[in-house]
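STRUCTURE:
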């Protein structure tokens, strides 16, 4: 998916460096030649995968914020469709056009080389959501997945009163949110020795994969007290599989596990929480709009004061669902 915005010519654009600690002609990810007055600066965005609901909201908010800055810079974005090789090509092609700022949500750490090349070329690099194993970026913006994992663990420990069995359905194995959401959760579980955690498969943050995994798991007839999924799509998939197959797996047993997800970006999830199908989710704030705001400031010469900008989370349960919808009117339908 590609969206381009052709904007009116900016009469006088003053560009004062685009990188942390930038020096003229250096390679510290921020130095850029001052454009001609008749040229617009270019801001580009490489999205990891626009298919899941959270990233659809992410894309929509990014585009909306870019439109607010139409008089200041041109904006272009492309979706890698979850393909790391494709994302490397997208970034390399973007760089031929000499963007002043590159927004990128990496598919995985293997795109790090292209990101580092962009930074070394003097383009300000703003990482969105997912990090890389390198300091060659200007700023990172996203939620604190370790903290969200901890909060999910604390909620589960409270719901299970410190004992029981949790099935953890995992996201993309090599993605940093997966590692962080697992890590924070397991920190809390280590303090609750009465809770056993079954580490489920990498279901790629996809509903259908999680549903298929849960269908297979139910065939084992292994009792569980909670399903902790690394995103809401997988929590929904697991719940649908449970509703379809639990009675065959456990005849006469009407106990239902606690279902917990992460993201909080879908109306469907909030509706399921209100209906008692899911117990809780934790909002994972989309970073696109903030990324564009930071890009606009960089073009004005205002570098981020912090290299890491953390956006806050919110617990959503049945008790808080109505207020959450009022506070978040742009949930994906």
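SEQUENCE:
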């Amino acid at each position: 998916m590609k969206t381009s915005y052709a904007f009116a010519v900016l009469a006088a654009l003053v560009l004062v460096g685009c990188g942390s600690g930038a020096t003229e002609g250096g390679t510290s990810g921020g130095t850029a030649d001052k454009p001609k007055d008749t040229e617009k600066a270019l801001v580009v965005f490489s999205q990891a995968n626009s298919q899941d609901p959270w990233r659809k909201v992410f894309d929509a908010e990014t585009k909306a914020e870019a439109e607010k800055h139409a008089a200041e810079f041109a904006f272009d974005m492309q979706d890698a469709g979850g393909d790391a090789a494709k994302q490397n090509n997208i970034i390399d092609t973007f760089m031929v056009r000499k963007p002043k700022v590159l927004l990128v949500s990496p598919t995985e750490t293997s795109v790090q080389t292209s990101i580092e090349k962009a930074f070394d070329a003097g383009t300000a690099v703003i990482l969105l959501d997912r990090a890389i194993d390198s300091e060659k970026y200007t700023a990172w913006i996203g939620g604190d997945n370790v903290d969200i994992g901890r909060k999910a663990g604390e909620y589960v420990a409270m719901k299970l009163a410190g004992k029981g069995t949790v099935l953890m359905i995992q996201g993309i194995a090599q993605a940093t949110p997966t590692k962080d959401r697992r890590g924070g959760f397991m920190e809390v579980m280590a303090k609750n020795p009465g809770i056993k955690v079954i580490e489920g498969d990498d279901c790629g943050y996809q509903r259908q994969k999680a549903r298929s995994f849960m269908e297979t798991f139910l065939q084992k007839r292994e009792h569980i007290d909670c399903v902790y999924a690394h995103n809401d799509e997988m929590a929904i998939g697991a719940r649908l599989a449970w509703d379809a197959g639990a009675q065959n797996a456990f005849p006469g047993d009407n106990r239902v596990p606690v279902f917990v997800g992460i993201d909080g970006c879908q109306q469907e999830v909030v509706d399921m929480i209100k209906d008692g199908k899911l117990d809780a989710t934790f909002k994972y704030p989309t970073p696109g709009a903030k990324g564009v705001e930071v890009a606009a400031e960089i073009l004005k010469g205002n570098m981020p004061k912090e290299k890491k900008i953390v956006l806050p989370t919110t617990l959503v349960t049945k008790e808080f669902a109505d207020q959450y919808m009022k506070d978040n009117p742009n949930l994906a339908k």
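REMARK: Residues 232-249 form the longest helix (18 residues).
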